[in-house]
Specification:
Two copies of one chain form a homodimer. By secondary structure, the first copy, chain A, is mainly alpha-helical. Helix content of chain A is 75%, strand content 4%. Chain A has eleven helices and two strands. Chain A has helices at 3-9, 14-27, 39-46, 50-63, 81-102, 108-127, 130-146, 151-163, 165-172, 175-193, 197-220; strands spanning 66-69, 73-76. In chain A, strands 1-2 form a two-stranded antiparallel sheet. The A-B interface holds A 11-13, 16, 51, 54-55, 58-59, 61-64, 70-71, 83, 86-87, 89-90, 93-94, 97, 150-153, 155-156, 159 and B 11-13, 16, 51, 54-55, 58-59, 61-64, 70-71, 83, 86-87, 89-90, 93-94, 97, 150-153, 155-156, 159. The first copy, chain A, binds a DNA duplex (30 and 30 nucleotides) through residues 12-15, 36, 38-40, 48-52, 54-55, 70-73.
DNA sequence: AGCCTCCAGATTGGATCCAATATTGAATAT
DNA sequence: ATATTCAATATTGGATCCAATCTGGAGGCT
């Protein structure tokens, strides 16, 4: 990527830029779990001052990626296998609620948007574009959740997705997983068209369960 | 140091002081929904600089009490009656999970801690100490949730409690409500001692429903 | 040795100042 | 009159400096 493109893609504020960098550093394990976050060192590394760094850390604290103790600072929070399972269990609870509320409210326009999102998922899956597929998958699910008309619920779910973003990219790196996701989404769409909330919830539970199982296998090794 | 002791301690940083003030200002409606938050004016009013104010705003953004647009600033998010109901519905989902996981794991020590917390609730209720009762009530519930062994779930629940803190204080302002809370807590304790998760969940659902109903009546007027 | 006190260095918290961006309103052209 | 441009102002974003607090170790005491 050229420096010009890099420059264009850079977020409009330093804190948002640092936020993305920190997420990557934490989820890839470059910042080790439990270790303290030295603001001076990181600020210098990212070539910003400590002010935007601290605001980014405050956001990460809200997401649970770091812990905070007054006058002692921020510490990288472990995202262990147990944590991953816990996040998915919480998602199961919240997303079931969202889907059950959304299904009876789905309009033709909503379904059309979901199908467009699914088209993009399938295109990216076929092309093997991991990042694009992760983004399209996110659009698909969140589009559905938005239809529940519960903005705070959706906010929480979105935050939970954010905390496990890097793991999902790992999942999509495998071609078999990509195919599975495509077919699972198609089944979900069928249930949604039929306004069958029970089936949609069950399919989405299985959808998540597969992801957890696959990621568990990877993280164990 | 236990997290619950941390819960009661007043953190000695300006940002957390401002955080509490902002929460009150927003939930009491002094800062009107949708209106922009002028950092200079508020910082001067609270007698701090804009730095801790901005970090507090970042926390509130994570909780959904304010929205944020880069280079345009923060705006007060409405916490309407619908929002309040939504928060309580989400709490219902998450707290049921926490209780069901916690009940079979409760030790004699856990029950003793719950009883101590309840003693403090009753003392504060009898003395009419609203703030103290809100704090003790919080300790009671979070002590129970902590026993679930799901730290991320507890974090989410804690955040949901934070967003409606000011409303709970209103609730405890009424003597009848205080008495009701005391007796409801006693019933919950009985179910917990009997390791009866179904009953505990049902009682806590009713506990929340009463609070929502009472607050709805207040907020309508 | 074990424990406390206290000092120096390290680190975070906060205040002030400057830069970057958005908004407003007046002047201009159509 | 309406739309547009552009300068003036208001507001947010960020850098630097100073203050408050924590940490770790040297020294003294029982």
């Amino acid at each position: 990527m050229s420096p010009l493109e890099e420059e264009r893609r850079r977020p409009p504020t330093a804190q948002q830029f640092v936020l993305g960098e920190l997420r990557r550093a934490i989820t890839t394990g470059r910042l080790r779990p439990g270790s303290p976050i030295r603001q001076d060192a990181l600020a210098e590394e990212f070539d910003v001052s400590r002010v935007p760094l601290r605001e980014a850390l405050k956001t990460l604290h809200g997401e649970g990626l770091v812990t905070y103790q007054a006058h002692r600072g921020y510490f990288v929070e472990t995202l262990s296998l147990d944590d991953l399972r816990e996040v998915y269990r919480i998602r199961e609870l919240l997303e079931e609620e969202a889907v059950r509320r959304a299904v009876p409210r789905l309009t033709a326009g909503d379904l059309a948007r979901l199908e467009r999102a699914q088209d993009e998922v399938e295109r990216a899956a076929a092309a093997g574009e991991v990042q694009e597929m992760a983004a399209a998958n996110r659009v698909f699910h969140l589009t559905l959740f938005e239809c529940a008309g519960m903005p705070r619920l959706v906010r929480l779910i979105r935050t939970l997705w954010d905390t496990t973003d890097a793991y999902r990219s790992m999942y999509y790196g495998d071609g078999g997983n990509r195919e599975r996701v495509v077919s699972e989404h198609r089944a979900v769409l069928g249930a949604l068209r039929a306004a069958d909330a029970d089936t949609a919830v069950r399919l989405l539970d299985e959808h998540r369960a597969h992801a957890v199982a696959a990621l568990s296998a990877v993280l164990d090794g």
